[in-house]
Amino acid sequence: MKSKFTAHYSLLLVVLVHAGVLAAVLFAPESPEPPVVIPPTIQGVIVSVEPVEPPPEPVPPPPPPPEQKPLPKPKKPLPKAPPSERAVQEEVAVEPTPPAPVEQKSEPQPQAPVVPPRADATQINNPAPVYPTISKRLREEGTVILEILVTASGSVAEMRLKQSSGYERLDEAAMRAVKQWHFLPARRGNEAIDFWYELPIEFSLNK
């Protein structure tokens, strides 16, 4: 019986203690809030700093002008000695040389006319071109004109066909014959010269 009473008493004591603590908390005066400190605002303007130019360098003083040396005094020309009698006599004895005669250019003389070469001279026996048999049968006729270079010795050096007869057989027969011919060379005055010459060769069945 005593133990139950002790237990109830202890429980009641614990409840009272908790109730007192709770009442102290509820009814305790509120602590004042700490004051809020507002920092001051700082407003400023950015000012651009101009670059500071360095002071100009001092200009060195100009150098002193060079000392002018006095110009030397011009020397007086010495008087020339009069020429000796021998020099005067030599000047009188020397005669001026006459100018060289001017050569007169002679005018070119006109050249003598050229006499063309000849192949029909009596002392030259040049065989006539052979008339091709086929050309006679086909009644082929015509005139061949050859350009030949007759040398100063009278031989034929070069040959060209200037005008054809119209038939290749007649052209070849004329060139084959004239190539063996000999000519009296062309002459300029008494001098034999090389000469290009036109030679006509006629092929005709009526001769």
Explain this structure.
The structure is a single chain. By secondary structure, the chain is of the alpha+beta class. Helices cover 24% and strands 16% of the residues. It has four helices and six strands. The strands form two sheets. A three-stranded antiparallel β-sheet has the order 1-4-5, with no helix packed on it. The radius of gyration is 74 Å and the shape is elongated. The model has no long low-confidence stretch (mean pLDDT 75).
- Unreliable spans are none
Strand order of the largest sheet: 1-4-5
Number of helices: 4
Q: Write the H/E string, N to C.
A: HHEHEEHEEE
- Main sheet characteristics: 3 strands, antiparallel
Query: How much of the sequence is in beta strands?
Result: 15-25%
Radius of gyration: 74 Å
Q: What is the molecular shape?
A: elongated
Mean pLDDT: 75
Look at the helices and sheets and give the structural class.
alpha+beta
Helix content class:
10-25%
Characterize this entry briefly.
The chain is an alpha+beta fold and 207 residues long. The chain is 24% helix and 16% strand.
Topology:
Blueprint: H1 2-26, H2 85-93, E1 114-115, H3 133-137, E2 142-150, E3 156-163, H4 168-178, E4 186-188, E5 191-193, E6 195-203
Antiparallel strand pairs: 1-4, 2-3, 2-6, 4-5
Keyphrases for this structure?
elongated; 207 residues; alpha+beta; 4 helices; three-stranded antiparallel sheet; single chain
